[in-house]
């Protein structure tokens, strides 16, 4: 943004799109392209007015008054005006005097300065509003236009197209530019678009960027967006952590231990934190504490315990274009062992060329993350995922489709057509509840598992599925896993070496158990077994909290009384969970079942939903679409979950 805009608040309504005008102004004023855009925006594309505006402002910028007060209403302030270029016939001569209000009026600026961004003034965590300037596909990098496009809702694909104009070295050098004093990535975070934030970091933006005047780290700004923008920032925090943002940027006592509800709401700091966190005043710390929810705290603490990827791992991931693989642990609750094994196995497979595809078995009780792990793998690697419900197939013809000349052969099947569409490409086929399959289906999978060969059922053409990642998910080995965990508690301990040893031991036992239940040909083609373990008490609470976040999003939607699919008779409710550590632990303790996993914890969210509905129905007012946003408080009272809705006139309570 121009220096004019960086000092004053102003509104510019006209968008500049005429490149000829921009180039003319750049040539005649000797200014940058961005400065030319700003000037033309101010002057409604009038080049002469823009040149006059530029020269008048140069006078002010080169010889500013000694004492620039927040308001210019305290009396006139004289400013000596130097002689300008001869092209400006209407500008004052060097011996003229012009008062500051007159100068501001001449350059069409309001007499109000921007907020003080000095280090002594606390930032309010709100970014400035930028003029809507569209990105233009030209051979120069415009940081202001990029930030503006993000702020005004540009799609990630549009931004990628713009960034692809420039060399990777150039974008890497410029993606950490500032606009209005804020690093570009701050605007990306405020958009609440994970795709845009990933894109910025991919092109060189720093996930540990800070707003220098207040020394506020990006991670703190992200958390505070929950308050300033009224959005759920949980996933955005995970994205930044997965991309290298340091959890140490946040005072550790705010999130460790993660189950402990924060006692810093009064803003008191622990000793020793003051010098390290200069930006975190008692007031800011109180606000930060209020906006850090249980899931935030869990992933922040987890990040401090995760070993950073080795240099070789990062190099291999970069060369194989699978950097997202290294971020999987930052998106899954629990299952640290499973993610470590999966990352290791995938990197080894990609590092050594192999004709055989990777075949993995995800084993663990229902509801403990088998499908979620596969989905995250596909999402973070940008791979297409085909989920197959094995309970619906008995014969191989149902799985892959009939062969010629049987009826319907020309249509193929979902799996057949997926493999054909991804021939020679990396993709994922997830066979859920594999224990329900038959020997006939097992036999049909042997050739694809063995050498990556398959034939299209529609025309018999040979298909290359050597890069396909096959995942067999099964509950058949639950007893093996539960019994092992019962007798080997070290597998969930903090001793890394012992945990690795126990993990290998469990994987071997899973292979032996699988062999007893399935035939040897299938077992022999499985590359590795990935065990998913029962959740700890803390992990159960965090999963419950994630369920409540989903409920909160539903309750926040506006009421709609129109008949049809958009009808909503309850809404405009902001669900607030006080002492979320205690609330979610209480719900998890009542509902978790090791055989059901996360599915059993959803019942806790349903209980809260019923509490909200009971109180809502007791409200004696008519439902209207004009209902304002109301807060609903969830808390624990003597071991029971209770709720009350807050309005200007009443507070009802129901347990």
Automatic annotation (TrEMBL):
Transmembrane segments: none annotated. Residues 65-96 are annotated as: Disordered. Residues 77-87 have a biased composition (Low complexity). PROSITE patterns: ANK_REPEAT. It holds the Pfam family Ank. Residues 356-494 form the AAA+ ATPase domain. One of its GO terms (cellular component) is cytoplasm. One of its GO terms (biological process) is cellular response to heat. SMART domains: AAA (SM00382), ANK (SM00248). Keywords: ANK repeat, ATP-binding, Nucleotide-binding. InterPro entries: AAA+_ATPase, Ankyrin_rpt, Ankyrin_rpt-contain_sf, ATPase_AAA_core, ClpA/B, ClpA_ClpB, P-loop_NTPase. GO terms for molecular function: ATP binding; ATP hydrolysis activity. ANK repeats lie at residues 180-212. PANTHER family: ATP-DEPENDENT CLP PROTEASE (PTHR11638), HEAT SHOCK PROTEIN 104 (PTHR11638:SF18). This is AAA+ ATPase domain-containing protein. It comes from Hypocrea atroviridis (strain ATCC 20476 / IMI 206040).
